[in-house]
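Title: Prediction job returns without error message
Component: structure pipeline
Severity: low
Priority: P3
Assignee: unassigned

Description:
Job completed but the reporter wants confirmation the result is attached to the right record. Sequence as submitted:
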Amino acid sequence: MHHRNRHFRNGRFATEEKEENCMKFYNREKELARLNEIRERSVRTAQFTVLTGRRRIGKTQLALRINDETPILYFFVARKAESFLCQDFQQEIASKLNVPVLGEIGSFAKLFEFLMQLSEQRSFTLIIDEFQEFIRVAPNVYSEIQHYWDRYEKSSKINLIVCGSVLSLMYRIFENEKEPLFGRATAKMSIKTFEIESLKEILADYNPNYTPEDLLALYTFTGGVAKYVQLLMDSGSTTYRQMLDLIIQEDSTFLNEGKNMLVEEFGTEYATYFTILSAIARGENTRAKIEAVVKREIGGYLTKLEQDYGLITKNIPIFSKVETKNVRYALEDNFLTFWFRFIYKYGYMIEVGNFDGLRSIIDRDYKTFSGKMLEKYFRTKIIQSQSITQIGGYWDRKGENEIDIIAVNELERQAQIIEVKRNVANFNLETLRNKAANFLHATRMLKDYQLSYKGLSLEDC
């Protein structure tokens, strides 16, 4: 096959023969262009970019791909003594900048001051990865960076990029006005998942004969997260069955991924947050239903999950007032939805090594589960087409009379009313029209709009 000698690397392909010269980024052109514009500005004046995004999204690889017309230093903030970190960083400086660091420097503050002074004479990029880890290693670092940044910024030519994946901590460091680095960033970028068209392109490169079921599985299991896509593609897992077999097996990196991602975010209250997320993932999507599972008041937890952590979305029927109590919650992240629905819920099966049993349970429930994912797939696809001005679903106060997608184009006075079914044979146009009539009567909206009705299924992926 033509693609066997190609390897996926966090949003790019590399051939075995010319790994450095034959890189192809997917869905990252705009971000890379912006980072290069910032680098060009840094030759004249110091730049401080904050790069955030969930774990495995490809932040580091993206930052390392900027044009190397100036040297690039890469510092990774591991959880070890500050003096040991500085030893690592000094080796990087000596290697990349070809300058000795005078004496043994045991504090990051002194090292940062040295680099800020050096950047007055020459331009270079400094990437600090997992920047939030300084909170544990040396919490005074942030005020020290602020001190030396303020002192040398006007004369410096440094291109400083700090990356972080613990979003709550990164938000606190840069958005809390009481923190020393508040207001210091000159640019902030949030790296998103691959768009659907990029997932199609990637899957086609590895399996030109992929089916809609395979594409939906890739979307469902990874949500477009670069590292997950890479793990599946590099292993040759390009079909639903192959993907599931790779994810649910002994020593799979996917099994502990949800816990590894979120325990640090939630701290000592992670058990309560995990219970809430697990309930939402299995369809308990109203506050009353979630509280029945958790057996406590959860208003504050839901607010933090939505606003601080960005892990859930609060959905209301389209055209409803913001203050409506007719609210449904959903997990924002596809992989975490799958992880909480199956891996976390049936963790006891993993403990005893019953992977075959767990795969059987997923097979049993997958059509229903992926049916909801298919609805999200089409909603996302419509949004990414940029052909609408508003999109949402509809359900009445009883949770009935549901319409999956209502896509509105106010400029052209058009609206699509859409029902999503895995199997096109299950779509009934008359039923959809009746639901739409009830919706139009209840909301008194879309008057004088050109309405169209359609069913979308796997065949339309």
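Comment from assignee: result matches the submitted record. Confidence is low (pLDDT under 50) at residues 1-23.
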